[in-house]
Amino acid sequence: MKRPTQADVARLAGVSRATVSNVMNGRVDDKIPVSKETRQRVLDAIAELNYTPDIRAQSLRSGSTKTVGVMLPVYENPFFWQILTGISAEAERNNYSVLLTPGSDAPQREQYLLRELAQQRIDGLILLSSSKHLPNPVAQQLHQSAKPIVQISSADSKFAYAHDHLHDTYADGARALLEHLIDLGHRRIGFVYGVVHEPQGYDRLLTYEAIMKETGFYSPDLVVRCGQAMEDGYNATLRLLQQPSRPTALLAINDLLGLAAIRAAVDLGLHVPGDVSIGSFDNIPFGVYSVPRLTTVSGNPQQLGCRAFQLLLWRIQDPEHPQEVVRASSALIIRESTGPVPES
């Protein structure tokens, strides 16, 4: 069945196509006078024909698709979906749609997905790539696409193709969490460092190493590298807590691994925080309902997503807008999973 057109609406309502367009786009005022009767005839015709605008045709005429592309890491971590919630809410508020592309643990696959996303009919891109560096051909393609790009990263970005940056760093939050544990008397503090690519989480790892060295408590055997899955974090925690001189406190790179660390401690017959304190990062909703409730550092991911879309919208509306580099804040949230160092 043929899709109804604006011309069909105009014919049924007995008006011009310009009048239909003005009514549909709300351009009815003193400058473009349309009587209430005429406006109602147009609305009735739209309802009778079940007419909807052809978005593709509109975007071709205007040069704007009212769609932004978003690449998120493929992680199961709810933190990234909270960022997406913020992006989507701000996009909806500004009458934009979101085209989501999941990233990949495999760099070549992620680069392919990024190239595909850049080729879509979109007005701009928001990227949370798991790769720190992109091959020149991919970076060049992004540059040639001439699309505004906002990047969210936990380190100072070196990407030449991003116009604006949200520096999502936990460095201050990591310092606050470590100082909290040290104030509680902890000296042997382990770190479950579970990432896909080594540079991820450097804001936390480098802060941990610096503070532990400053205080004289650093020991390389207290850092266990592992994968990103909860099972990886669980096994890494077992290795740490089965050391002859086990740590009395643990940091996990994110809340998912923090929850896995609690499970591992309990399975070893330890009490959290009586025998071992555990803190992590992201403030995902699950941490409020774990037993015990998880001490964490919050990066306010929904606000981060909103801010990323706002930066992108400014860039879309004004390509010559000065580059924005925004440093996001973090805050320590002390709950039940951290407590005083156990008595020896």
Can you tell me about this structure?
By secondary structure, the protein is an alpha/beta fold. It folds into 3 domains: 6-53, 434 Repressor (Amino-terminal Domain), CATH 1.10.260; 65-169 and 301-328, Response regulator (Rossmann fold, 3-Layer(aba) Sandwich), CATH 3.40.50; 171-299, Rossmann fold (3-Layer(aba) Sandwich), CATH 3.40.50. Helices cover 43% and strands 16% of the residues. The chain has helices at 6-13, 17-24, 36-49, 55-62, 78-93, 107-118, 136-144, 171-183, 202-215, 230-241, 255-267, 286-289, 301-317; strands at 67-72, 97-102, 124-127, 149-153, 164-167, 189-194, 223-226, 249-252, 277-281, 295-298, 325-327, 331-333. It has a 6-stranded parallel sheet with strand order 2-1-3-4-5-11, sandwiched between helices. α5 (78-93) links the parallel β1 and β2. The model has no long low-confidence stretch (mean pLDDT 86).
